[in-house]
Write a structure and sequence with these properties.
Length: 150
């Protein structure tokens, strides 16, 4: 064993065990989605629009992304981005749904970042505000590029 290897620079979560992913998937699908329905019905009816995008709002500033395109690697990538200082949701858990069928889906439980999406506000921004946003995005890309590949 080579003891000269440097430790990885980030403390990233390991991929979950397939059985654990199935159990978390069951909890996401049968418990958290029901909690979201009650939450939206009684406390936050204004959040109904998010469900159409596969983003299911939950209490305590959490969201559940439920999509055929959701993968565990996305959650691990969010953790990597956060550890680099990039504003990204905190990855909590990944759930697998129907893994051996054509209707395979995944779900990612994560924190919600407050604010509006750029897509929602881009039409109302002035050229100066767009320039500031472009500079911030360029800075974030430079920060990501400054790290070496593992």
């Amino acid at each position: 064993m080579n003891r000269n290897l440097a430790p990885p620079p980030f403390n990233l979560p390991y991929p979950g065990h397939p059985l654990g992913n199935l159990i978390r998937g069951w909890i996401h699908r049968h418990v958290l989605i029901r909690i979201s329905r009650i939450y939206r019905l009684y406390f936050r009816p204004d959040l109904q629009y998010l469900v159409d995008d596969g983003v299911i709002p939950l209490p305590f500033n959490l969201v559940l992304k439920f999509s055929p395109h959701a993968r565990e690697a996305e959650g691990i990538a969010m953790s990597l981005a956060r550890s680099m200082g990039i504003p990204a949701p905190r990855f909590i858990s990944y759930g697998e749904h129907f893994p051996n069928t054509s209707s395979r889906q995944g779900s990612i439980l994560m924190t919600r970042i407050p604010g509006k999406t750029l897509q929602d506000v881009i039409e109302s921004l002035s050229p100066e505000e767009l320039h500031v946003i472009m500079q911030e995005l360029a800075g974030l890309l430079d920060r990501m590029r400054s790290y070496s590949n593992p």
